[in-house]
Amino acid sequence: MQFDATFYAFVGLLLFFALIAYLKVPGMMAKALDERATGIQAELDEAKQLREEAQQLLAEYQQKRREAEEEAKAILAAAEREAAALTEEARQKTEEFVARRNAISEQKIKQAEDDAIKAVRSAAVDLAVAAAETLLAKQTGGDVQASLFKDSIGQVKSRLN
Q1: Cβ distance 148 to 136 under 8 Å?
Q2: 144 and which of 23, 49, 59, 140 could share a cystine (Cβ 3.0–4.6 Å)?
């Protein structure tokens, strides 16, 4: 029987497969592939865990941002209320100041009027005394005139004080 090259190639192939099976190459390949699959699965699990942690951190930061925005709104509202209160207080103080100034001005005007009335009365009294003196001088003699003048001055002084 003559064997051609195809037969020897076939026998070589069988020996090669037997050698591979004897050396447990498929098991090593399967083991290597399993290890690689396990490593990839571990990386996927780690990536999934990192993604969950990132989402958790994102949620925390969003919550903190919302809280900070609410706090900022509260601070702004408080500042607006305080500004309104200060404005109202300043308005009231200004109105009180103007009212006090008006009262003081009215009081000074009234005092000036009273002083003017006293001055006019004083001038009128002086004029009346002078007129009375002139009349008495014309109608009466020197001694009577002096005694009347003294009595009149005494009466005017007592009425003015």
Answers
A1: yes
A2: 140
